[in-house]
């Protein structure tokens, strides 16, 4: 891995990739800042303002009354009941575990544009998937396929190490760079988010149960989710490159894979949108995805990756270096 | 020592080499000679671990060939291959480093092949000859027990060829290396090789010792008139090694005898003959040209 890094250090591609991704991230942040200012009038919350615990209890009573006054024959009864019940649960939670009004934000609201730095950073991070896809392809081509174009693979893979060990070392370097760039993009996303917007330190998640999560914990989940997705996706790209080997074939196949993953699947099968894209953490609490779907996505990704690693390494070992 | 036993390799339906078995002894320069497509490079690639065998076995120093043997074998096979964006020196350092080799001998070989002026230039700016010299510097710097060289003279000028030949002999004599070299340049092989292996259509034809060729005083007499062969047999009878149509190969105890044999042929009114002393070139034509039937 150190030897691979020695070569990478001498190459412009490493610095160019970092520079371009940082620039794209910053431009994207500015673009969404402007966009967000325009639409923030649509920001709303279902929780009404309160100043102390007694007022929370009053609000809870009011919601209970409202629920009782709902007419079951009404066409919107179920929807209204569900919304009010959710708000009731939040007030019940707050009446026991009091949190000042200015310190909370509902998770549903994070998913839309609003005047909150976490939501802003989260939105910016959605571009992360696209940037990492492009970087992964360029970097996999550079680490694996370029050697087959130059003919240097004959020297690289005929040395006193197993071919799988050489690939493993390249993969470790590849992952380190991908994780480094991911962390850099996350840092930029959050830096831009925190420099433009007020912070609310707590987030309330609504769903079947009400729970409260500190902003910094949410951020950790956000970072973990981004890194996890990027590792899986970039690993799939890397092992596809190992399987294909030839430079031009690799470009064609990897671009086709990216087009399917980033554009065709989200367009034709919206329920599979997060199969290869960044999925905001705790997304299963929202209407767009369920906990089961989230787990299925993760399992599909992991199984596909493991199968691909096995096939790629087996094929790579068996094939002649010509 | 390298033992090759009943090795087969095909590329799809094309049989590259079959039933090759031979032993390559240590501390020798062994030449591999064959026509285009005869399987020379395939055999080199098998020894260097670049391609897998269909079946057969290869043993290096008594151990079945595996990835660890790549530390003992340096190969120069097919086209030059270095990173165009790195300088010659950076390329050498990188590839030596991944082979766990220090750059101790690097400057010595850079000097030897007169690459001092160019070693810090980008590889992409190199001429064909410079690329070849860089490959040779790399191979020699690796300081391995075995050197596999496929057409090492391509692109080299006369001076570089002489330097390389001298260095290969030195590597064998002083450092106990074994060199396995493929070349179409018969004269150069003849001047440095201890043994020559002839390979034709993927099969081993013959393996000869160069000292024997020089020692045994064989001559090939080509008769322009095929009927003259019968007359000639009368005086050549005990010296004949083989006969093939109009060509008679004789083996003499003493090279001075050839002039008296020519005189005897003239006395028999056989005037149109061509007499050539056995050399690698004649052996090449004999083994790899027309079909022959050696006794």
Brief digest:
By secondary structure, chain A is mostly helical.
Task: Please tell me about this protein's structure.
In chain A, a hairpin with a 5-residue loop joins strand 1 (202-205) and strand 2. The radius of gyration of chain A is 24 Å and the shape is elongated. Chain A is mainly alpha-helical and 322 residues long. Chain A has 2 domains: 2-43 and 108-318, no CATH class; 53-100. In chain A, 71% of the residues lie in helices and 2% in strands. Chain A contains 12 helices and 2 strands. With 295 residues, chain B is α/β, with parallel strands linked by helices. Chain B folds into 2 domains: 2-209, P-loop containing nucleotide triphosphate hydrolases (Rossmann fold), CATH 3.40.50; 217-277, UreE, C-terminal domain (Alpha-Beta Plaits), CATH 3.30.70. Helices cover 34% and strands 28% of the residues of chain B. In chain B, the strands form 3 sheets. In chain B, strands 6-7-8-3-9-10 form a 6-stranded mixed sheet, sandwiched between helices. A 4-stranded antiparallel sheet of chain B has the order 2-1-4-5, with helices on one face. In chain B, strands 12-13-11-14 form a 4-stranded antiparallel sheet, with helices on one face. The longest helix of chain B has 18 residues, at 158-175. The A-B interface holds A 3, 6-7, 10-12, 150-152, 154-163, 318, 320-322 and B 45, 48-52, 67-71, 75, 77-86, 90, 94-95, 97-100.
Write the layout of secondary structure elements.
The complex is a heterodimer of chains A (322) and B (295).
Chain A: H1 2-10, H2 12-39, H3 53-69, H4 77-96, H5 107-110, H6 117-125, H7 128-150, H8 153-156, H9 163-196, E1 202-205, E2 211-214, H10 215-244, H11 247-268, H12 291-318
Antiparallel strand pairs in A: 1-2
Chain B: E1 2-11, E2 14-24, E3 29-34, H1 40-47, E4 55-60, E5 63-64, E6 73-76, H2 88-98, H3 106-112, H4 128-141, E7 146-150, H5 158-175, E8 178-182, H6 186-192, E9 195-200, E10 203-209, H7 210-215, E11 218-223, H8 228-236, E12 240-244, E13 247-251, H9 257-267, E14 273-277, H10 280-288
Parallel strand pairs in B: 3-8, 3-9, 6-7, 7-8
Antiparallel strand pairs in B: 1-2, 1-4, 4-5, 9-10, 11-13, 11-14, 12-13
């Amino acid at each position: 891995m150190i030897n691979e890094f020695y070569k990478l250090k001498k190459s412009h591609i490493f610095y160019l990739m970092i520079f371009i991704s940082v620039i794209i991230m910053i431009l994207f942040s500015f673009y969404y800042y402007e966009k967000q200012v325009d639409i923030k009038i649509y920001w709303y919350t279902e929780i009404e303002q309160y100043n102390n615990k007694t007022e929370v209890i009053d609000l809870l009573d009011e919601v209970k009354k409202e629920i009782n006054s709902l007419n079951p024959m009404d066409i919107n009864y179920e929807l209204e009941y569900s919304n009010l019940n959710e708000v009731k649960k939040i007030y019940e939670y707050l009446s026991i575990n009091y949190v000042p009004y200015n310190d909370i934000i509902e998770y549903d609201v994070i998913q839309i544009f609003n005047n909150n730095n976490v939501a802003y950073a989260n939105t910016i991070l959605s571009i992360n998937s696209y940037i990492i896809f492009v970087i992964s392809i360029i970097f996999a081509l550079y680490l694996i396929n370029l050697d087959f174009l130059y003919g240097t693979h004959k020297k690289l893979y005929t040395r006193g190490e197993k071919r799988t060990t050489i690939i493993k070392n390249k993969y470790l370097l590849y992952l380190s760079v991908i994780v480094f760039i991911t962390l850099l993009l996350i840092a930029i996303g959050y830096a831009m988010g925190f420099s433009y917007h007020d912070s609310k330190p707590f987030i309330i998640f609504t769903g079947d149960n009400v729970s409260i999560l500190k902003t910094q914990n949410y951020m950790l989940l956000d970072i973990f989710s981004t890194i996890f997705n990027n590792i899986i996706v970039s690993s799939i790209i890397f092992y596809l490159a190992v399987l294909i080997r030839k430079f031009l074939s690799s470009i064609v196949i990897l671009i086709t894979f990216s087009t399917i993953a980033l554009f065709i699947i989200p367009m034709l099968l919206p329920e599979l949108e997060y199969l290869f894209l960044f999925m905001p953490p705790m997304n299963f609490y929202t209407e767009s995805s369920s906990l089961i779907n989230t787990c299925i996505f993760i399992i599909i990704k992991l199984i596909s990756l493991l199968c691909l690693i096995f096939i790629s390494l087996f094929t790579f070992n068996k094939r002649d270096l010509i | 020592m390298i033992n090759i036993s009943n090795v087969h390799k095909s590329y799809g339906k094309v049989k590259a080499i079959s039933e090759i078995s031979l032993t390559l002894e240590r501390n020798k320069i062994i030449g591999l000679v064959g026509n285009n497509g005869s399987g020379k490079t395939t055999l080199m690639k098998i020894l260097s671990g670049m391609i897998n065998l269909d079946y057969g076995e290869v043993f290096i120093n008594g151990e079945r060939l595996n990835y660890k043997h790549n530390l003992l074998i340096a190969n120069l096979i097919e086209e030059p291959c270095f990173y165009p964006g790195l300088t010659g020196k950076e390329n050498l350092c990188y590839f030596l480093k991944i082979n766990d080799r220090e750059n101790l001998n690097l400057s010595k070989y850079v000097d030897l092949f007169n690459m001092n002026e160019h070693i810090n230039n980008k590889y992409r700016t190199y001429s064909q000859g410079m690329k070849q010299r860089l490959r040779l510097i790399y191979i020699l710097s690796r300081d391995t027990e075995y050197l596999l060289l496929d057409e090492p003279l391509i692109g080299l000028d006369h001076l570089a060829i002489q330097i390389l030949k001298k260095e290969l002999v030195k590597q064998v004599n002083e450092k106990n290396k074994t060199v396995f070299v493929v070349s179409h340049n018969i004269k150069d092989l003849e001047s440095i090789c201890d043994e020559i292996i002839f390979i034709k259509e993927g099969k081993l034809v013959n393996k000869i010792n160069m000292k024997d060729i020089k020692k045994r005083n064989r001559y090939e007499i080509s008769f322009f008139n095929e009927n003259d062969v019968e007359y000639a047999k009368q005086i050549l009878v005990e010296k004949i090694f083989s006969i093939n149509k109009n060509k008679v190969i004789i083996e003499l105890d003493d090279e001075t005898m050839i002039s008296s044999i020519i005189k005897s042929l003239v006395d028999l009114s056989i005037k149109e003959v061509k007499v050539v002393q056995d050399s690698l070139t004649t052996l090449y034509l004999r083994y790899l040209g027309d079909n022959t039937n050696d006794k």
